[in-house]
């Protein structure tokens, strides 16, 4: 497998292809797993997207979500983990000034 890491938008566009190819969500999921292995979307997520496509919604962008936006960048978290991969979520949250739940997401 190449170094390409698919993002959510790419995966959703591939799902549109499978949807128009008359595949089921389960078949699409199996095909994604063959190609992307652990990076593949779950079967439940595939079913959710197929439901949206069936309703005529082909917008693959993320919908706005409620809740507080993230207050740190993933690069900051990755840098801390590179320094010491054994840090707990509580320690990371304290350094970044966020809650433990923000780290776990």
Characteristics of this structure?
Arc Repressor Mutant, subunit A, 105 residues, 6 helices, mainly alpha, elongated
Please give a structural write-up.
The chain is mainly α. It has 2 domains: 8-55, Arc Repressor Mutant, subunit A (Orthogonal Bundle); 74-104, Arc Repressor Mutant, subunit A, CATH 1.10.10. Helices cover 57% and strands 0% of the residues. It has 6 helices and no strands. It has helices at residues 8-20, 25-36, 43-54, 74-83, 89-96, 100-104. Helix 1 crosses helix 2 (25-36) and helix 2 packs across helix 3. The longest helix has 13 residues, at 8-20. The chain is elongated, with a radius of gyration of 18 Å.
Please specify the SSE layout and strand pairing.
Elements: H1 8-20, H2 25-36, H3 43-54, H4 74-83, H5 89-96, H6 100-104
In short:
With 105 residues, this protein is mainly α. Helices cover 57% and strands 0% of the residues.
The profile of the biggest β sheet is: none
Number of strands: 0
The H/E string reads HHHHHH
CATH architecture assignment of the largest domain: Orthogonal Bundle
Termini, distance in Å?
A: 27 Å
Helix content: 55-70%
- Overall 3D shape: elongated
Figure out the total of helices. Answer: 6
Share in β-strands: under 5%
Roughly what is the average pLDDT, rounded to an integer?
87
Q: Any idea of the CATH topology of the largest domain?
A: Arc Repressor Mutant, subunit A
Structural class designation: mainly alpha
Rg, Cα atoms, Å: 18 Å
Uncertain ranges: none
- Domain count, please report it: 2
CATH class of the largest domain: Mainly Alpha
GO molecular function: DNA topoisomerase binding; double-stranded DNA binding; histone H3K36 methyltransferase activity; histone H3K4 methyltransferase activity; single-stranded DNA binding; single-stranded DNA endodeoxyribonuclease activity
Organism: Acromyrmex echinatior
Pfam families: HTH_48
Domain Mos1 transposase HTH: 9-57
């Amino acid at each position: 497998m190449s170094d390409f890491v698919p993002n959510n938008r790419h995966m959703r566009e591939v799902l549109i292809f499978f949807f128009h190819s008359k595949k089921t969500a389960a078949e699409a999921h199996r095909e994604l797993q063959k190609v992307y292995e652990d990076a593949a979307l779950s079967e439940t997520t595939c079913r959710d997207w197929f439901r949206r496509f069936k309703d005529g919604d082909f917008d693959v962008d993320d919908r706005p979500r409620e809740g507080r936006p993230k207050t740190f960048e993933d690069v900051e978290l990755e840098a801390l983990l590179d320094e010491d991969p054994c840090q707990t979520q509580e320690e990371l949250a304290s350094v970044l000034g966020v809650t433990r739940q923000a780290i776990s997401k």
